[in-house]
Specification:
By secondary structure, the protein is an alpha/beta fold. The chain folds into 2 domains: 191 residues, Vaccinia Virus protein VP39 (Rossmann fold), CATH 3.40.50.150; 101 residues, Putative methyltransferase TM0872, insert domain (DNA polymerase, domain 1), CATH 1.10.150.170. It is 41% helix and 14% strand. The protein has 14 helices and 7 strands. Helix 2 links the parallel strand 1 and strand 2. The longest helix has 15 residues. The N terminus is likely disordered.
Amino acid sequence: MSLPISSHVPVMLSEVIGLLAPRDSGRYLDGTFGGGGYAEAILAAASCTLWAIDRDPDAIARGASLAARHPGLHLIHGQFGDMLALLAERGVAALDGVVLDLGVSSFQLDHADRGFSFRADGPLDMRMDRSGQTAAELVNTLPERELADTLFELGEERASRRIARAIVAAREDGPITSTTQLAGIIRSVLPPDRSGIDPATRSFQALRIRVNDELGEIERGLAHASELLAPGGRLIVVSFHSLEDRLVKHFMSEAAGRAPAPSRHDPRGLTGRQMPRFRLLTARPLRPGAEEIAANPRSRSARLRALERLAVPS
């Protein structure tokens, strides 16, 4: 069964397509297919071949109608952190561009039964690929200290210990199984944020990241993308919170030879530095404009960074 593709425009679409610069006969990868917005724009911009990966089976089902209209689109169910193996199975060894739109998709947030959002009641799930451990299992089984560490490290939640203590106390009366139940526990011990951000936001982010190993996925995906890019090929990454952006910034800076030189006391400083294989296309991350943020408030935290593979020295 194919599900309908949304008319929702993905974040910073014109900037992504402008930097990717699709060309006829090019080979591209959309590593986070989602609603198909970037994929459709890439296929409209050039007569090219596009592979699209998504770990969510619902996203692959939604993409069937787009694939039927575009013979150059090839959908792959899997994780973008495995792109090297997934593409090798299909005889693909090099790409002219890769796009990664990190984090949770609007489709996942907007469907309460997926358990990603605290704004509607649903099962406490949060699995992008509908397999493995759920957020409910984490919330109900993690020791208090490990739960607090997860909220602090993956959600940057300063009140992590207070929240973990409240969760452990609440689960003594019975399992925590719904999104609104968990959000209510968090709100009971945290005052409203002056910024208007819901007190449950950071904790839900932390659980989602752990359930889906999102940071590990990003590290693997960036490494694989850099291996796959042909000379002149470009990597475009859109991130939505500081943990994601920090990984992307560090990876791209190192790849472009922008990492700080080792200390003179560090043995690595005795060896010559290798010539960088990439160049940064964005000295600073690009941000969405005021008009886009007004039309799509979820875009306000977006950061776009881009990298280009240099030609092999002669």
